[in-house]
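Thread: "does anyone have the structure for this chain?"

Original post by V.I.:
We have the sequence but no experimental structure in hand. Need at least a predicted one for the grant figures.
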Amino acid sequence: MAETAPGIQQLVRDAAGRLEALPHANARLETEVLLAAALDKPRTYLFAWPEKQPPAQQVRAFEQAVQRRLAGEPLAYILGYREFWSMRLEVTPDTLIPRPETELLAELALGHLQGIAEARIADLGTGSGAVAAAVAQSCRRCQVFATEAAPAALDVARRNFRRLGLHNIDTGSGHWCQALPPRQRFHLILSNPPYVRADDPRLKQGDLPWEPQAALKAGPDGLDALREIIPQARAHLAPAGRLLLEHGYDQGRAVRRLLQADGYRGLETHRDPAGHDRVTAAQAPA
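Reply from O.Q.:
Generated one for you, tokens below.
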């Protein structure tokens, strides 16, 4: 007698049981997300049709996705997207996976733009374009210029900007401020640069081994990229313009010292929802 093909409920139960072995995985949720993607349906479809038997081709696609996840591949890379700032952004192994704590950078940027008509903003090292897209979407009167040194990552960002219909973003290929228009001055310069110490054991944990290492590592103390950006940004800030930098949870004091040594004023370090130092803001030197 032929074996009955599994229904949705059984597929979820079996795969979630296997994903339980994966450290830090939300096994049930991730299983449902992967199956919904394989079926090209919303997650609610799984609950509405628990006994439905999906076509064999879709079951095979789901099983392949589960195997990739069991191998440790990040969920965002398997799906090809990550939600950020209520936007669905394409992500690939050429880009970092946008994280919730980085939304603080966009939130602070928008706060500093209050009262500035036709503000000009630069996002250095845009990656998938998450922060630039969040600012451009929330402030349509603003003009954003996003830079990225990695050509493959910049291609992803440009696709995201086009798909989201963000016509108030320009892009440039190059290293930090070197890609900015030379004579243009910005009211705000933002960056979420690499800031992980090269020997940090977390680089071997979770999603990090799969992400582009050049976008994570920043020398022995994690500050190499910030040491480049801080003096470069001075020449590109408008009078009273501000520099906003994301950094590690234990780097707030060190970043303030770097900014102060370069003449920046009004230094403020802001904490993310977990209570960790995450973004330091500074006003351009007089």
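V.I.: this helps a lot. Residues 246 and 279 are 4 Å apart (CA to CA).
O.Q.: and The radius of gyration is 21 Å.
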